[in-house]
Write a structure and sequence with these properties.
The chain is built from twelve helices and 14 strands. The chain is α/β, with parallel strands linked by helices. Helix 9 packs parallel to helix 12. It starts with 10 loop residues before the first helix and ends with a helix.
Length: 379
């Protein structure tokens, strides 16, 4: 056993550091009984829109709903196809199916994001949209994907669930631009473990399209912009006041927390780069990485994971099964030959502890334990 337990993420440590701020946010909501949407949600919407550099933010119940709402308001439904990555959390493809459309998967690139060079061959008359996922905290090749979408008359929807404040150089302006602003809309999750996390489920849609923002807001609120005036059939997906108030308190700290994650990632890079059996994450040129996850590729992954766990170091696998190979899509007949990178990654990837409060001592302990594993006789 190591002398120091290293949790995969420590949400309590963040709470203790900002206890007075967070407690006061919760207390304010209770005092005003603004539990569903209301003034706290509206305040967060404005703050997050400003942080993303967009005109509109629609606060919703969770990140999954955010994708679903966008797709529905784009008119996507039965008979349509939506192209997305083979490597992501299930919400990305699940929401496509919820509309009645069919997800069409594309293999990943060396940065774990959708391989932009393989998108165009998947486009046909049924294709209506592309959903790239800025996985693990780094932008996909969004400028190239944006050009593909425009060239083929397709909607571009960015899944930014793991990429709060991540940026990519915009080929049009040659300036760093926040993810979520290249397409018709970007969707965010504020699940507790995210870089900007609530104390329950919460999500948001960001867009610069005034009319589209109005449709999304209406659909998320039972099809009404004014209570009892239901213009369409919608769903119930509204951020609750407590989550909004907490997120508003956390948002001003996000840049600082992001820099802490980057320092931790750099330390991991320095300590792990000399281990032949370990491949550290790469940063795409022209992109900034916010390190929602620090994901390595490694030999004997499952044995290493067990070794670290026995020593008090928590790790995770994001994700153990690539989307095309899940049982939910077994009828599609996908094979590993169709998605060779995603297939190879699922047996080699390992997410190491990563959060703003992670100390250098903890990182050294993780790296030292990994080195010990590969240096052990018989490994």
């Amino acid at each position: 056993m190591t002398g120091l337990r290293v949790p995969f993420v420590d949400l309590h440590a963040q709470y203790l550091a900002y206890k007075e701020e967070f407690d006061s946010a919760i207390s304010a909501v209770i005092q005003k009984t603004a539990f569903i949407s209301g003034e706290f949600a509206h305040a967060f919407e404005q703050s997050f829109a400003n942080a993303c550099g967009v005109r509109h933010c629609i606060a919703v119940a969770n990140g999954t709903d955010a994708i679903y709402i966008v797709l529905k308001m784009l008119g996507i439904g039965p008979g349509d196809e939506v192209i997305t990555t083979a490597g992501s959390w299930f919400s990305t493809s699940e929401t496509i199916g919820q509309t009645g459309a069919r997800p069409v998967f594309v293999d990943v690139d060396d940065f774990y994001n959708i391989d932009a060079t393989q998108i165009e061959p998947k486009i046909n008359a049924k294709t209506k949209a592309i959903i790239p996922v800025h996985l693990y905290g780094q932008s996909a090749e969004i400028d190239e994907i944006s050009e593909i979408a425009a060239r083929n008359g397709l909607a571009l929807v960015e899944d930014c669930a793991q990429a709060h404040l991540a940026q990519r150089v915009d080929a049009r302006t040659h300036k760093l631009t926040g993810v979520g602003t290249f397409g018709v809309a970007g969707t965010f999750s504020f699940y507790p473990g995210k870089n900007l996390g609530a104390y329950g489920d919460a999500g948001a849609i960001v867009t610069n399209d005034d009319a589209f923002a109005t449709r999304c807001r209406m659909f998320a609120n039972h099809g009404a912009l004014v209570k009892h005036h239901h213009r369409i059939e919608g769903i119930n997906s509204r951020m609750d006041g407590i989550q909004a108030a907490l997120l508003s308190k956390k948002l001003p700290h996000l840049s600082m927390w992001t820099e802490a994650r980057r320092r931790t990632a750099q330390l991991y890079d320095n300590l792990l780069s000399g281990i032949p059996e370990v491949k550290i994450p790469r940063i795409r040129q022209g992109s900034t990485h916010v390190y929602h996850l620090y994901v390595i590729q490694c030999e004997k992954r499952d044995h290493l994971k067990q070794w670290l766990g026995d020593r008090g170091i928590e790790t995770a696998v994001h994700y153990p099964t690539a989307l095309p190979f899940l049982e939910a899509y077994s009828s599609c007949g996908h094979s590993k030959d169709n998605f060779p990178r995603a297939a190879a990654n699922q047996d080699r990837i390992l997410s190491l502890p990563m959060y703003a409060e992670l100390t250098p001592t903890m990182v050294h302990d993780v790296a030292s334990s990994i080195r010990q594993f590969y240096d052990s006789p018989g490994r």
